[in-house]
Amino acid sequence: MSLLEIENLVVEFQMAAGPFRAVDGVSLKVSAGEVLAIVGESGSGKSVSMLAAMGLLPWTAKVTADKLTFNGRDMLSMSDSERRKIIGKEIAMIFQEPIASLNPCFTVGFQIEEVLRFHTDLGKKARRDRAIELFDAVGIPNPEERLGHFPHQMSGGQCQRVMIATALACNPKLLIADEPTTALDVTIQKQILDLLMKLQSEHQMGLIMITHNMGVVAETADRVIVQYKGRKIEEADVLSLFESPKSAYTRALLSALPDNATGDRLPTIAEFLSDQEIFEGAVR
Question: Which residues are in the ABC transporter domain (predicted)?
Answer without folding.
Answer: 4-254
